[in-house]
């Protein structure tokens, strides 16, 4: 990190300045070694609360704790030296008041060393976003499908299909931008709404299932690698890691069973 020849890490302000330019590219990351592999190629890494579903097999993100987020945030920071690292504030750790949100965000910044936090919600969270930004916490917003509200939404459903819904999501994005967010994740909304939001706000929109009209894109790493057993409809699988893992495991099992592994190269020999 301190080596002179290393370029400085991307900041929240750098991301903000990318509005309307070359698309911002982001992936989720929960893990040091995969963070190290993807860090040189993307602009930011999100330690998403989706880790509850991806790493722990939970059905929603609601049970995810602040301790889980901090532990994986620290792991990702050890692997990443180039990207901005953004950590999701988990359900129940910030909604009740701006003060509570600041206490949570301060722990995340202190204990992980990450450069920004993300929280879900629009107009109702604007006061909190302002409170955090005024106190030195860069905040990424998240509107549209907000998975922490799965129980009030009634499922992981596309948002903004009806005009009333679209209008309120647009108002949410504007409120978060005006409150000082440096970027806004727009999740699972119809293309015209994603375009409208992107044109209406002065900070970048980062889409997930929200069309190419956004200023950038993010996906869950394990989904795009083809490791997740299921993925939302908007995911494109750029790899098939599940098949590769299965192939490697079958080869290992077969070599252990026929005693071709461990071979000479894999065995300690006594000193001559
Ligand atoms: N692995 C993973 N990938 C994600 O993208 C992701 C998570 N987990 N967990 C948190 C949220 C939840 N997300 C989701 C989850 C499911 C759908 C989904 O299955 N949607 C249906 C449409 C359902 C409907 O409209 O009724 C789809 O077919 O895409 C969408 C987003 C996105 N996030
Ligand atoms: C899908 C992204 C935007 C997220 O919030 C997460 O991974 O938790
Ligand atoms: Mg999340």
Topology readout:
Layout: H1 12-16, E1 24-28, H2 32-38, E2 44-47, H3 51-54, H4 66-79, E3 84-88, H5 98-112, E4 116-118, H6 126-134, E5 139-144, H7 150-153, H8 163-178, E6 183-187, H9 191-200, E7 205-208, E8 216-219, H10 221-224, H11 241-257
Parallel strand pairs: 1-2, 1-8, 2-3, 3-4, 4-5, 5-6, 6-7, 7-8
The structure holds 5,10-methenyl-6,7,8-trihydrofolic acid, 3-methyl-2-oxobutanoic acid and magnesium ion.
Question: What coarse outline follows from CA principal-axis ratios?
Answer: globular
Task: Give me the number of helical elements.
Answer: 11
| Helical/strand content category | alpha/beta
Examine the secondary-structure arrangement and name the CATH architecture: Alpha-Beta Barrel
Going by CATH, the homologous superfamily would be: Phosphoenolpyruvate-binding domains
Strand content: 5-15%
Low-confidence stretches: none
Number of strands: 8
What ligand species are in this complex? Answer: 5,10-methenyl-6,7,8-trihydrofolic acid, 3-methyl-2-oxobutanoic acid, magnesium ion
Q: What oligomeric state is this? A: single chain
Report strand order across the widest sheet: 1-2-3-4-5-6-7-8
Radius of gyration: 21 Å
